[in-house]
């Protein structure tokens, strides 16, 4: 007996005051399921909204009165779907389903290879001198292989068809199930009657090709969900709340209320939005706001949940806790942007609904027509089976996935990992590329900028002193150390650190702390750190360095007719020099997540199709709202989860490779679809006219599938310009900081 679930504990309240619950749905096999589920749930009294995200299989239901969580789940079960709370179990279930599909595919492939070996002998023998006894023996061996193999490998289609019929509806798996069952059943009858033809090979080949397409589609969507996480987890699950007796008590972040005082230890993420009550520290807000530099905090300063605390402890007065923090606002923006993408899938849903009734009607009319024309029952049934098989959407199902797999391999070699199955189609249509700056156009880690006349020995000595500092910027200087950390180092709060070296005082910190003046030959956007040893003074800069091939890639994108822009959460002083170095005119700085969404909406309202390239938490909603999105592997995990693709390495070249690869793939997809449609235009009338046996129908269907697959292999070859930029991008990073400063 399965364990009962109290679904009421998963019910929350929507912004408009309605009861709301999110469920993970099992059993969704095609886009046609979307309308069936949404309309079925909306039929319940009191249900106001029901929205299913096809990519995540997440159903969000909102109701006023007259229904309950159990009624919603019961309605889904009546429709033939299983539901459970949207949580980690959803991914576990999808992973199990993927492994099951792969096993079914393996069984069908193994059986098809063996049956085809037997069938070739029968085909050649039918036109030569094979004896009926030998032919029947081969047919029975084929039956012993095909029947159990079909019973196992056909489960994804059979189970889906049974669920659909029980709930009084049709889906694309019903005609597939009927065609395979009739082909196998008639083959057994034909073999028992010692007839020359059997169709075991047709049925198994049909299952193999259909399973290949279904597995590829399932894996593309599952990879999108595999890394998807809860943004709110960035702030942690627990917080140290100061009790009435002044003692910190560990409580869940959901329990925090405005007015509570919490303790933030060094190195912890801030658990709630609030105002600093006491303490001195610096926080890294790059995942929240996109700001590259740590921000110094003192009493009275505001800080956001998700920020990473530096070396000092902070007491924070909560201003927004529970689900009202900036992190939660970003989550809501992200959910809304993801929901908008469902419209693309629902368009395919409306087309998919027409397939099942049209196939059944065509096969039925063909059988009745031949019966009325005087044909026997056997011939009429076999013609109907041929129609069901030859109209199988195998070529149509493989037209896009075959290109996707080939193009994905090409892009993988270019350092690009695709998360969304339809990413290539959407990317091919873009006319505008929007970059974030920090960690995207620039390298994820800051680089050290030195004056032209810097003394290498003085730099190395500063690095040894920096080894004793916990300041984020000191870590960059510490990489230049030649030797162990210095002893007896003293920290001066808010200023820097000092020590005695060779009898002289050495200081590392702010310009005023070291009595230094900034030189003119450091980047304008660099954070300055001074080092003084006796009378020797060195001022260094820590700044973001451009990716080594950023200039070439931006130039090539422009050469392809794309409008290139920058939308950044960083300050104008950091964005302007990068835009100038890359020749990008349209650059906006200081943008919050909602500002980026608004900018993208404005571009989309103007008819633009936008590629967004960004990292960091603040880019996650923008990535989801864009037509298509890319994120560097160095970006925040949540950003990668909601990007359509992730690129690896220090170069920007994979972005260009993605654009070129997508355009090539889109062209091949259109060609494949034309081949598949043309095949049906020619083949279906021949099947209806009785010129096609089930075997020929399966061969024709397989031939069209092979043709689109061979055509898809052309997507594996990169273009010459793409290869050239890739080679150029492999050069070193010398001069990157100088280019930004210029």
Automatic annotation (TrEMBL):
Keywords: ATP-binding, Cell membrane, Ion transport, Magnesium, Membrane, Metal-binding, Nucleotide-binding, Phosphoprotein, Translocase, Transmembrane, Transmembrane helix, Transport. The keyword NAD does not apply. Residues 19-84 form the HMA domain. GO terms for biological process: copper ion homeostasis. It is found in: Cell membrane. One of its GO terms (molecular function) is ATP binding. It is a multi-pass membrane protein. InterPro entries: ATPase_P-typ_cyto_dom_N, ATPase_P-typ_P_site, ATPase_P-typ_TM_dom_sf, ATPase_P-typ_transduc_dom_A_sf, ATPase_P-type_domA, HAD-like_sf, HAD_sf, HMA_dom. The chain crosses the membrane at residues 100-125, 137-158, 170-192, 198-216, 354-375, 381-403, 673-689. One of its GO terms (cellular component) is plasma membrane. CDD domains: HMA. Its main location: membrane. PANTHER family: ATP7, ISOFORM B (PTHR43520), CATION-TRANSPORTING P-TYPE ATPASE-RELATED (PTHR43520:SF5). Belongs to the cation transport ATPase (P-type) (TC 3.A.3) family. Type IB subfamily. This is Cu2+-exporting ATPase. The gene is fixI.
């Amino acid at each position: 007996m399965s364990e009962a679930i109290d679904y009421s504990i998963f019910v929350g309240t929507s912004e408009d005051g309605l009861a709301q619950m999110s469920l993970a749905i099992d059993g969704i096999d095609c886009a046609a399921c979307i309308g069936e589920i949404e309309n079925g749930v909306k039929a319940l009294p009191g249900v106001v909204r029901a929205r299913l995200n096809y990519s995540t299989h997440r159903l969000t239901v909102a109701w006023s009165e007259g229904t309950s969580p159990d009624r919603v789940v019961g309605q889904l079960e009546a429709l033939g779907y299983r539901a459970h709370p949207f949580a980690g179990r959803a991914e576990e279930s999808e992973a199990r389903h993927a492994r099951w599909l792969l096993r079914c595919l393996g069984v069908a492939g193994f059986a098809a290879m063996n049956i085809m070996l037997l069938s070739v002998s029968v085909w050649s023998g039918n036109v030569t001198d094979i004896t009926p006894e030998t032919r029947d023996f081969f047919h029975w061996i084929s039956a012993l292989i095909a029947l159990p193999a079909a019973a196992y490998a056909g489960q994804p289609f059979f189970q889906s068809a049974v669920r659909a019929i029980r709930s009084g509806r049709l889906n694309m798996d019903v005609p597939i199930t009927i065609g395979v069952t009739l082909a196998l059943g008639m083959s057994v009858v034909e073999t028992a009657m010692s007839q020359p033809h059997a169709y075991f090979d047709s049925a198994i080949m049909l299952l193999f090709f259909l399973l290949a397409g279904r597995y590829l589609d399932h894996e593309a969507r599952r990879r999108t969900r595999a890394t998807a996480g809860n943004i709110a987890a960035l702030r942690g699950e627990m917080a140290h709340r100061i009790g009435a007796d002044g003692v910190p008590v560990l409580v869940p972040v959901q329990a925090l209320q405005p007015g509570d005082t919490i303790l933030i230890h060094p190195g912890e993420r801030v658990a709630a939005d609030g105002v600093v009550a006491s303490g001195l520290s610096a926080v890294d807000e790059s995942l929240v706001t996109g700001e590259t530099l740590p921000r110094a905090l003192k009493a009275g300063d505001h800080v956001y949940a998700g920020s990473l605390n530096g070396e000092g402890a902070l007491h924070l007065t909560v201003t927004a806790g529970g689900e009202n923090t900036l992190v939660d606002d970003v989550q809501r923006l992200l959910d809304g942007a993801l929901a908008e993408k469902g419209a693309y899938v629902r368009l395919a849903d409306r087309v998919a609904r027409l397939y099942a009734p049209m196939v059944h009607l065509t096969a039925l009319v063909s059988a009745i027509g031949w019966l009325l024309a005087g044909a026997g029952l056997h011939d009429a049934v076999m013609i109907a089976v041929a129609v069901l098989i030859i109209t199988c959407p195998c070529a149509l199902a493989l037209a896009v996935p075959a290109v996707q797999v080939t193009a994905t391999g090409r892009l993988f070699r270019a350092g690009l990992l695709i998360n969304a199955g339809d990413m290539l189609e959407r990317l091919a249509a873009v006319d505008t590329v929007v970059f974030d700056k920090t960690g995207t156009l620039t390298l994820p880690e800051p680089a050290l900028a030195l004056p032209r006349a810097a003394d290498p020995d003085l730099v190395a000595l500063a690095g040894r002193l920096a080894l004793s500092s916990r300041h984020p910027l000191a870590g960059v200087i510490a990489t230049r150390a030649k030797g162990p950390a210095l002893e007896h180092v003293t920290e001066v709060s808010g200023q820097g650190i000092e020590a005695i070296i060779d009898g002289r005082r050495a200081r590392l910190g702010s310009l005023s702390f070291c009595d230094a003046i900034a030189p003119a030959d450091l980047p304008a956007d660099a954070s300055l750190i001074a080092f003084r040893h006796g009378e020797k003074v060195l001022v260094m800069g820590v700044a973001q360095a451009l990716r080594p091939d950023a200039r070439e890639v931006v130039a090539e994108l422009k050469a392809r007719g794309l409008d290139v822009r920058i939308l950044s959460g960083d300050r104008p002083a950091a964005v302007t020099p990068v835009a100038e170095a890359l020749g990008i005119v349209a650059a906006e700085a200081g943008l919050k997540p909602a500002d980026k969404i608004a900018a993208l909406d404005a571009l989309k309202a103007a008819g633009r199709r936008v590629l967004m390239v960004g990292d960091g938490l603040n880019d996650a909603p923008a990535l989801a709202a864009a037509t298509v999105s890319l994120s560097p592997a160095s970006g925040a995990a949540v950003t990668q989860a909601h990007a359509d693709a992730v690129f690896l390495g220090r170069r920007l070249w994979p972005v260009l490779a993605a654009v070129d690869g997508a355009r090539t793939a889109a062209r091949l997809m259109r060609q494949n679809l034309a081949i598949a449609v043309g095949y049906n235009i020619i083949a279906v009338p021949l099947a209806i006219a009785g010129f096609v046996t089930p075997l020929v129908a399966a061969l024709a269907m397989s031939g069209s599938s092979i043709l689109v697959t061979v055509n898809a292999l052309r997507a594996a070859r990169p273009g010459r310009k793409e290869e050239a930029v890739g080679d150029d991008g492999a050069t070193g990073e010398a001069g990157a900081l100088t280019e930004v400063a210029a």
